[in-house]
Amino acid sequence: MNKQRGAWILVLIALIVSAGLLFIDSQSSQGLLNSFDTGEPETIKPPAAIVKEEPVSKTELESIEPAALEKETVVTQAVGIPEPEPVPVPAADPFLVVIDPGHQAKANLDQEPIGPGAAETKYKVTGGTTGIVTKKPEYVLNLEAAELLKSALEARDMKVILTRTTNDVDMSNSERAAVANDNEADLFVRLHADGSENPATSGFSVLIPAKENSYTSAIFADSELAANHVIQAVSADIPLHQTGIFYRDDMSGFNWSKVPVILPEIGFMTNVEEDQKLSDPAYLTNVMNLLADGIVQYANNN
């Protein structure tokens, strides 16, 4: 009897323990059975830093303010490959004109070769002509004209060198040409005024080296081109003497030149009307401006 009662007590205790375990398991968030693999895949949440970007619609893009787009562009350029630096283009040297105001206060009648290696000789430099009305010496007018021409050319972005800036010099024609040669001038302009035994003779003209001149064969074509441009520019407002261009092979100032050379005869001081005009600052300035225009046209086409 006692043995039977003890067995029932053990069964009762076992039932109580089992019920307690089942109760505890039901209250757990995981459950005891969850410790076993159920075969279902585990869901992995993406890291918070990874955000899926949705495409921007055309309407949304148009609503973005330009300032915001500029900032975005700047950032893109900053992190991208830098653009190569532009290679600077060296500036061209300015066109160089050497102006020789013809003659000087005191002539030098010593002789010099007419050209390199020549046996024939000429006066180094003569005194020039004189105004029939104004009595102005040609060398004075030539310097006045040269200074006006210099200003006109510099205003057109050209570089200018004068062989002389005063009348009290002693420079032969070959020495004047040497100034142009030594400076590698683009054009040598020998400024003069003309004279004639006929007081009716007038007009502007340009002298250049002759084509058949052996001293100047290398510079003939460019000299003729410069003369043509000058005649075209000046003749628009100033009367010409005959055809306007004259070819010479007997001038030492030409024969010693290694660079293109022209000799503008700006008018006849032996003509009453032209002599007075050449001493009028407004008229002389106009002639020099036209001469400068012709030189610029030559420079632009050469």
Automatic annotation (TrEMBL):
GO terms for molecular function: N-acetylmuramoyl-L-alanine amidase activity. InterPro entries: MurNAc-LAA_cat, N-acetylmuramoyl_amidase_3. One of its GO terms (biological process) is peptidoglycan catabolic process. Keywords: Hydrolase, Membrane, Transmembrane, Transmembrane helix. The chain crosses the membrane at residues 7-24. The keyword Transferase does not apply. Gene3D superfamilies: Zn-dependent exopeptidases (3.40.630.40). SUPFAM superfamilies: Zn-dependent exopeptidases (SSF53187). GO terms for cellular component: outer membrane-bounded periplasmic space. Residues 177-296 form the MurNAc-LAA domain. Pfam families: Amidase_3. This is N-acetylmuramoyl-L-alanine amidase. The lineage of its organism: Bacteria, Bacillati, Bacillota, Bacilli, Bacillales.
